[in-house]
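Running low. Invent one:
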Amino acid sequence: MTATVDVRGLRFTYPDGHEALLGLDLRVEAGQRVALLGPNGAGKTTLALHLNGINMPDQGVVRIGELTVAEQVLPEIRRRVGLVFQDAHDQLFMPSVAEDVAFGPANLGLRDAELDARVDEALAAVGASELRPRTPHHLSGGERRRVALATVLAMRPDVLVLDEPTSGLDPAGRRELVDVLSTLPMTQLVITHDLPFALELCARSVIIDGGRVVADAATAHLLTDDQLLGRHRLELPYGFDPRIVGPSPAR
């Protein structure tokens, strides 16, 4: 089951006094894929960490479906919202791929055949079934990224949040990731500086800067506004013209 993400008036200040979010509002409907764009330090990752309660608001409300993110419901919030971090090493720490993917469901109480089936399901979803017995640190960057995604999918989340998912991937790994993400039915928020990737995967994009949403529109529209991109330190690759390429009609 997919879920809406509803963020209202979100404010957050780090212990050093840095104000990262300044009354941010964002709503993502169930099943949407939305790219979160913006310069470094804009507040994108800080927002992501609020969606499953790693950070808690100073002010404002974060809702996932019908649940408000709060201490008393954190186990369910963290099952519903899966975070895939920029560095796959942060999520892969067991001796084998199968053990990494099984770790979360095992903590939910799954055992034996039920647990094995959940691992098989998650690895199949990312096209990595053959990696089941492998050691994670022997995998390629693209393989590690897919396995890290599988560890989250094994929890059957309603919302998937990915932080710079194409970072460090070669073109083939990037293509594999697009193919996987485009088939997943759950709500997706994708933090990325890879603007062509945002155009290909996400019909809608949101630009965050200075701790607020400063633009929210169709990805193809935002990426053709050169002045808007320039104001927020966003830049298309040399020679890439979204007016010619356009978004995939299937996505």
Summary: The longest strand covers residues 19-28.
